[in-house]
Amino acid sequence: MSAPFEERSGVVPCGTPWGRWYQTLEEVFIEVRVPPGTRAKDVRCSLQSRHIALSVRGQEVLQGKLFDSTITDEGTWTLEDRKLIRIVLMKTNRDAGNCWTSLLENEYAADPWVQDQMQRKLTLERFQRENPGFDFSGAEISGNYSKGGPDFSSLEK
């Protein structure tokens, strides 16, 4: 079995003061650096459809309204090596055109170049899903790829 598209093609991260976030067609990943030795009982994490709140040892790290809605029951967080919190949110809208421009409504926005790279990657991921026999992980895309790129679904195969 081959690796998922995002593992073969890499990620396009958006750096933040506390770590980074990145996305695929279906998910948003948040990686938060925490003090070494952090234990799960030190972490308070609330994941709701449009809101996130994370505090470590009583200190607020991240809180606010998410850029778009997520599926509450499918959001998870894990503490890895007692120094990294990884949060995975499942997008409600999983179209290639749904490229989050920021993590929260008014915070942690991707700069224009990173945003462009994120949209290109989501468009290629969509092409991979529509054409499972081809490997688009090393492909380059140019032209009209905003909003998920052109729609070829009506073409005859």
- CATH classification class: Mainly Beta
- Given as residue ranges, the uncertain stretches (5+ residues, pLDDT < 50) are none
Shape annotation: elongated
> How many angstroms separate the termini?
25 Å
Integer count of domains: 1
Written as H for each helix and E for each strand, in order along the chain, the element string is HEEEEEEEEEEH
Helix content: 10-25%
What is the fold-level CATH name, i.e. the topology? Immunoglobulin-like
Task: Count every helix, treating DSSP H or I runs of 4 or more residues as helices.
Answer: 2
Largest sheet: 5 strands, antiparallel
User: How many strand units?
Assistant: 10
* Neighbour order of strands in the largest sheet: 1-2-3-8-7
Approximately how much beta-strand content do the residues carry? 25-35%
Briefly summarize what is shown.
The chain is 15% helix and 32% strand. It has 2 helices and 10 strands; from the N terminus they run H-E-E-E-E-E-E-E-E-E-E-H. The strands form 3 sheets. A 5-stranded antiparallel beta sheet has the order 1-2-3-8-7. A 3-stranded antiparallel beta sheet has the order 4-5-6, with no helix packed on it.
